[in-house]
Amino acid sequence: MFDILSRIRRVGSLSEPLPAPDSDTELTAIQRELHDVFGRALCIRHVDAGSCNGCELEIHALSNPYYNLEGAGIRFVASPRHADLLLVTGPVSVNMEEALRQTYEAMPDPKWVLAVGDCGACGGIFNANYAVRGQISDVIPVDAVVNGCPPGPLAILRGLVHITRNLDRPRP
């Protein structure tokens, strides 16, 4: 134990310093705008409609201390009945088509859908396959799309901001 303590004393702290609390980065601006629109009450239901899990890793990064999604009042919920926004990843596989449709129908109005990743936007590399129905908009209406394979957490936050800026606009 003394060996470990002496090594810690010799090397010191290896972690990065905390960012300045008043730094006005793009991330804090996005979090502030989301907070202003939703008033700390945005609930997201995530559905993986058949993706490779690359987008899921980026979505999980939103919960880390750097992006601090919960600190902005945005949280993931287990039931679509409690959700304001449906976040869908991957192309819609044949097995997930009906489940995705039922999840969307179970959400209370008003409801928004954010398609994340190239697979959700256009089917990606999995499109034109016997096991895939195609892009998400072929099954349910989509309000916004976040492109990328996979898109980063900041791009997903930008997609949330895009939806918030168009709340009053009717769906096509």
From TrEMBL:
EC number: 1.-.-.-
Keywords: 4Fe-4S, Iron, Iron-sulfur, Metal-binding, Oxidoreductase
Enzyme class: oxidoreductase
Family matches, as Pfam families: Oxidored_q6
GO molecular function terms attached to this record: oxidoreductase activity
Record-annotated NADH:ubiquinone oxidoreductase-like 20kDa subunit domain positions: 52-163
Cofactor requirements of the protein: [4Fe-4S] cluster
PANTHER family: FORMATE HYDROGENLYASE SUBUNIT 7-RELATED, HYDROGENASE-4 COMPONENT I
Family, similarity comment: Belongs to the complex I 20 kDa subunit family.
The protein, known as: NADH-quinone oxidoreductase subunit B family protein
